[in-house]
Amino acid sequence: MEFIKINKDNLKSDSFKSAFKVYEKSFPSDERRDLEDLKKVIREGNKDYNFFSIEDYTKLFEPLYVKENMGMIDFWIFPEVNASYGEHVAIRQNTRNRGIGTVVINKFLTELTPTEYTVIEAEKPEIQETDEMHRIALRRLGLYDRIGFVLSDFFYIQPPYSEGKQPVPLNILYHSKSGKKLSYSEFEAVRDRIYASVYNFHKSLEDLNEMLKTV
User: Which residues, 6 or more positions from 2, have their beta carbon under 8 angstroms from its beta carbon?
Assistant: First the structure.
């Protein structure tokens, strides 16, 4: 399995195009960037941000193998708060349930993140609109639990990605390399860094709560 890092020089590549299709299909509009916003972040070359296309060889027939996109992952590394933020991970629909997601997340935790903590967001099963969405949210939480993430009880709202998009209440999960418990003060520092760097959001949590009330 190969992780292809996407930067300003390969934004026109098949690797990025295929990874974006998976990204776009896997997340609701309010939980991801639009294409041009994503390209802008990548072009800016922020040293904290990483976007990878995940690729592997699949057999057409013996002995012919072709390289195909399996999914994507993007994340941020914030050394000053000793935490990494897994923004998205998505596996192509017709390659799911083969353990690829577990392999990708484990590689992310062991080889790509140098920090003590890794923080991710996950949908709340109890507020999903359909039974299918509820089951998917539960399945994701189960996957993260098996990998070693801890479901926190910290209150968290994802700020809007851009104008016209909505804030989203989400669960926060964390993974610790040494098994430490993430304290609330550590969580606040990570949350504030995510809000400022990822979402360019500089208002208060109370402001987010008010925005949710109008949705």
Answer: 54, 55, 56, 67
Is there a contact between 59 and 65 (Cβ–Cβ < 8 Å)? Answer: yes
Predicted TM-score of the model (pTM):
0.91
Q: Is the dihedral of CA 162, 165, 169, 172 positive or negative?
A: negative
pLDDT digits over 7-58, tens only? 999 999 999 999 999 999 999 899 999 999 999 999 999 999 999 999 987 7
Backbone angles phi, psi at 43, to 5 degrees: -60, -35
The domain spans of the chain are 2-213
Looking at the chain, list the stretches that DSSP marks H as alpha helix, in order from N- to C-terminal side. Answer: 14-26, 35-44, 100-107, 131-147, 184-197, 205-213
Architecture of domain 2-213: 3-Layer(aba) Sandwich (3.40)
